[in-house]
């Protein structure tokens, strides 16, 4: 699995276990297809501590997953490295999700 | 410095990019920021994946990478002997909308390079990065 989920109360914790790019995005997309946001969840945190590299395929995947989710819940990306933050901001992901180092 | 990559495919993409990065002296220096290292890798990655995605049978016959480095900047020129891509259609000044599925690769490269030029339907890509 390249992504893990853990629900604690009203918070869903997701964490990536690989970089997000051309070589991993297909498997990640398959894993995210099965993802179903429970009604009682109010916030989603996504841990990027194991993500060292993201390319445009990874960004597309993130946007496709996170953007619709932000209509229902608050989304926070945590432990995001400075270079990855820079790319996420270039692609305007910071306009609908909080990005933290 | 000239680096030749024969038969670029999805399976040797990472290794091919590492081969180019190893030739850039400044990346080994303590003065080089993580962001510059990341950006150079990402720019190469996006151009190379375009050749693979748009190439025949998802590969590119041969790529030549020319690297020039001086006190102030790193200049990388990529010449494809095989694949090309519709650079005019893929490059835009505006950030693609969040709903758009693809088409962000070259936009990102434009944003992270200090100079980015594509010629001959992507067969030649030139990028310049200023040192930190």
From TrEMBL, chain A:
InterPro entries: STAS_dom (IPR002645), STAS_dom_sf (IPR036513). Residues 16-101 form the STAS domain. SUPFAM superfamilies: SpoIIaa-like. It comes from the Bacteria. This is STAS domain-containing protein.
TrEMBL record, chain B:
Signal peptide: none annotated. Keywords: ATP-binding, Kinase, Nucleotide-binding, Serine/threonine-protein kinase, Transferase. GO terms for molecular function: ATP binding; protein histidine kinase activity. It comes from the Bacteria. The keyword Lipid metabolism does not apply. Gene3D superfamilies: Histidine kinase-like ATPase, C-terminal domain. Its EC number is 2.7.13.3. InterPro entries: Anti-sigma-factor_SerPK, HATPase_C_sf, HATPase_dom. Pfam families: HATPase_c_2 (PF13581). The keyword Cell division does not apply. Residues 26-128 form the Histidine kinase/HSP90-like ATPase domain. PANTHER family: ANTI-SIGMA-F FACTOR RSBW, ANTI-SIGMA-F FACTOR RSBW-RELATED. This is ATP-binding protein. It comes from Robertmurraya mangrovi.
């Amino acid at each position: 699995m390249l992504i893990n989920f853990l629900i604690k109360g009203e918070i869903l914790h997701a964490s990536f276990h690989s970089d997000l790019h051309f070589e991993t995005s297909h498997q990640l997309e398959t894993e995210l297809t099965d993802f179903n946001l429970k009604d009682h969840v109010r916030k989603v945190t996504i841990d990027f501590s194991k993500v060292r590299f993201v390319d445009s395929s990874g960004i597309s995947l993130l946007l496709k997953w996170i953007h619709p989710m932000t209509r229902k819940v608050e989304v926070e990306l945590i432990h995001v490295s400075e270079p990855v933050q820079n790319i996420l901001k270039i692609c305007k992901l910071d306009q609908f999700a909080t990005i933290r180092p | 410095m000239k680096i030749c990559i024969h038969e670029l495919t999805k399976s040797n993409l990472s290794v091919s990019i590492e081969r180019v990065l190893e030739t850039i002296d400044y990346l080994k220096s303590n003065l080089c920021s993580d962001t510059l290292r990341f950006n150079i890798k990402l720019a190469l990655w996006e151009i190379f994946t375009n050749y693979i995605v748009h190439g025949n049978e998802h590969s590119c016959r041969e790529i030549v990478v020319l690297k020039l480095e001086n006190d102030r900047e790193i200049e990388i020129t990529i010449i494809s002997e095989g694949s090309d891509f519709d650079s005019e259609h893929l490059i835009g000044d505006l950030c693609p909308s969040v709903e758009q599925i693809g088409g962000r690769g070259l936009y990102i490269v434009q944003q992270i390079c200090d100079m980015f030029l594509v010629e001959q339907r992507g067969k030649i890509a030139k990028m310049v990065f200023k040192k930190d």
